[in-house]
Amino acid sequence: MASSPRSETRPGRGRADGAAARGTGVDPLRPADYDDGSSDSSASGAGAVAGAVAGAGGSAGPVTGPKLGPVGWLRFGWRQLTSMRTALLLLLLLAIAAVPGSLVPQRSSDPNGVVQYFTDNPDLAPVLDSFQMFDVYTSVWFSAIYLLLFVSLIGCIIPRTKHHFEALRARPPKTPARLSRLSAYTERPLADGETADDAIARAAAALKKSGYRIERFDQRGAPSVSAERGYLRETGNLVFHTALVGVLVTVAIGGGFGFSGQRVIVEGQSFVNTLAAYDSFNPGRFFDDTRLTPYRLTLDELDAVYETENRDALGQPIDFTARVTIDGEGGSDERQVKVNEPLYEYGTDVYLLGNGYAPTITVRDPDGNVVFTDSIPFLPQDANLTSIGVVKVPDGLDEQLGMVGFFYPTQTTLPSGAYTSSYPDLVYPVLTLNVYSGDLGLDAGTPTSVYQLETTGMEQLTGGDTGVDSVELMPGESTELPNGLGTVEFETATPDAAADDFSKSVSRFASFDVHHDPSQGWVLVFAVLIIGGLLLSLFVPRRRMWVKAVGPDGTTVLEYAGLARGDDPGLERAVDEFADRHANSAATGPETSST
Questions:
Q1: How many Cα atoms occupy the beta-carbon half-sphere of 394 within 13 Å?
Q2: Residue 283: partners with Cβ closer than 8 Å, 6 or more residues away
């Protein structure tokens, strides 16, 4: 077989060839067919040499890589998606994508807030809605990031798990020829009367007792032991990422089969766990209402405790407790719900979200017949529970009647003459009503909010520019309605109480969120695994340790060295401490401590 031109170099010609190459601009340390990418290589010495090599069977022209076909591009894209850099980027994007969910109300958790946002921002709200800003966590773009992160994590975990199992079965590496090159290195003399093999055997036993995997080697008459430990670090890392995928899966399952519903309940009233009984209801994609467990929740009493001693924090809420009765298949049971202490019954979590006052208002026609009576939840507007509510009387009078009411638990007058509340508890409760007559808009069949009154097309009878004072009532009082429509009464919740005792004169309401998530237990399990895996990956050091006996008999020295995978500031100290214990154990007995 003919040899290549490079194999025909004879003694004495290398220097002349190098000088000739330098004269033609070719680097003598590079192969003759090297191409630096120059566009006009034919005019250079490199081109001439390349041409000569081409004539001898080499290649000429610029070097080009192979073209990627469809499979190659798919493989390239998969490697990019499953890289750690991409996973971190997707995790960051997921956190950024969740930010709008905290800036604007979401239909899944605050549908009334979404309606109010459309009312307050009629131009901006439709634009945000087109980008699914009111459904962030179920939007196309959020789901895309979520799924890509899910795939990326799985693509990272599978090959790393395979490599980890292979590493667990592999033998510790051979002892390096020169341990002194390692940064964590020290020496100790061989104990008197002990052979090198005995010293290495003691070192192997001590390292094994400390949790190392060991392997004995004898290279060129120098006995040594190689040890390694810390595989729990990678195990913890894999557990962390696997549990993270588990959380993503269980949250998706819980969101698909769970539900969340809201209901406002006035003291003394009940709620039955059926689909029609909720004020608002947000089912998961795969939810089936036949899975609702029937039970009845009755709000017996809502206790509110406010600050009364610290004048700087007067009226600040201290505690809210909703005392409820649960009636279901298991019988009747009295329980309580607090703001941070939900009630768990019949597969649902019941959370106390808010509370306020629900004045009981009764309307009678001119003949004294009751045409309307109900406890109306008034929505709080400030910390002192100045509240607003709407009363709608569609039937029983000559005209449909609507009233916009303001309730003040402790009424006081501002310098401007307007009313406000100075304290959230019932000290001096006052109810004012602005009365409207006309079409309430209920006959058109279009759903309307119970907390809003559409006054367009209605005649205002009191308040505002009518010249007639607003209706003003305290608990137990009644007055005539304008135009002889009848009477309105602000009923007291405690008729037997003294005339000046307002402490329980107005019923309160509580807003509950009923939540069902079938994946809660699994989420807890995976959350514990995430924390455990993270702790293992952070605090378990990955180390290799070697002990080697070198030198002829009589002058044998024991070398100790260590190597860490990653940052390990305690490695040098660990090597020194093990060397000291091993040297001392020759006289004192077996070692008991670990490294």
A1: 7
A2: 259, 289
